[in-house]
Amino acid sequence: MDIRFLAHSAVELIDGDTRILVDPFISGNPKAAVSPDELEPTHILLTHGHADHYGDVVDIAKRTGAPVLAIAEIATELGELGVENVFDPNLGGTVQFDWGWVKLVPAWHTSTTPNGTVSTPAGLLIMVGERLVYHVGDTCLFSDLKLIAQRGNHVNVALVPIGGHYTMDRFDAVTACEWIGADEVIPIHYDTFPPIETDAQAFKTDVENATESKVVVLAPGETHTVR
Ligand code: NI
Ligand code: MN
To answer: Which CATH code for domain 2-225?
Structure first.
């Protein structure tokens, strides 16, 4: 499975013909490595409704016909906006796909879409083939990160926000990585805007000193192959 970092919290998980696009904030993203028209996802997932995650979801879903999975209130909004194929789980819910499954788990944050829909933010456990990816979403440090990551399947790759200001910072994120215990960690949600500038290489050093996890720092547009 390949993980393509598109900048901020936007990633593509690519496994054979499956292309799972998460949090497609591309237009208006100063670090975006692609244009929204270049993306051809088979599925789209949202962690929450903020503009820097919701992004181009409506346009991409309508153009490609890709189904969108988002928490119930956001899924309802997307349906009202003309997205034909939506999945609307809530926290704790798992949706099965032919390539694996997605489970919505808590994140401590807020969430209002650009259209005003208020909902609860989430993290995403994404099982693709034999690999479990934990997209932590936007959150502060909270102790249930340990519960979420350490019961059930082992987390192979964790996508962890490190930018601070809107989420946990790179220091709290080290503790999060200790609790998640993933094989690999990819830092996200940093350097996009001035308030969330941080030192990803220092985060890598700190995590690799404190844990068994290996940190993979990706530039926007870079792809990492998960073995
Ligand atoms: Ni947010
Ligand atoms: Mn955000």
So the answer is: 3.60.15.10
